[in-house]
Amino acid sequence: MVQGRSKAQARDIAVVIGASGGIGRALVSALAADGRYAAVLALSRQPAPAAGSPVETAVIDITDEASIVAAAAQAKALGRPRLVILATGLLHGEGIAPEKNWRALEADTLARAFTINSIGPALVAKHFLPLLPRKGPAVFAALSARVGSIGDNRLGGWHAYRASKAALNQLLRTLAIELARQSPEAICVGLHPGTVDTALSKPFQRNVPAGKLFTPARAARQLLEVLDGLTAADSGGVFAWDGKPVPP
Prior knowledge:
Elements: E1 12-17, H1 22-34, E2 39-44, E3 55-59, H2 65-78, E4 80-86, H3 107-128, E5 138-143, H4 159-182, E6 186-192, E7 195-196, E8 213-214, H5 216-228, E9 238-240
Helix pairs in contact: 1-5, 2-3, 3-4
């Protein structure tokens, strides 16, 4: 697996999309400190200040395919992506909150959730998967959520977020099948980071069990450790922060 190699090959790079978020920033820092990549490309909607070697920054808007195409070209010019992680997602925001019941369903909220949580990642995959090497290990991963599991849904509610993450999980499964034909050693997976102390989870931290609210740095470390333990046989699955599979 990518993180398991002893040393990066020349110009092997890692790409983090959503690098301005709490988990994204932590992933960039962890990968930069790791030393196994010639560069870490940090992509976010807002231009980030220069971070210094080996981090390179650039802009991406996953709702704009032209922006994704440009970002993919920048990645290709920088090196050979061995690891691409999408640390993006929408749960709440201006005028958007998780639905408590079906009476709260609104078309605009559903459309926005699917745009950010499933359509955007699908378009990123369209343009970044072809950049993965055809030989050797490589990873395409996207942050998902346990609540996106259909089989694990016991509480209901949160319709837009659940459904858009379930769609993401299905997309990752489908992409993994196709990726195996291009790059047999590569994996395409979803990652459930647990509850992380970021703006996304702030309104919902009250009932988190002791020891289960992770700092972004810890979450990043755990996610990279999970990727360390995966092989091509795991491609298409969704895995939690502790390495356990999330039911489909």
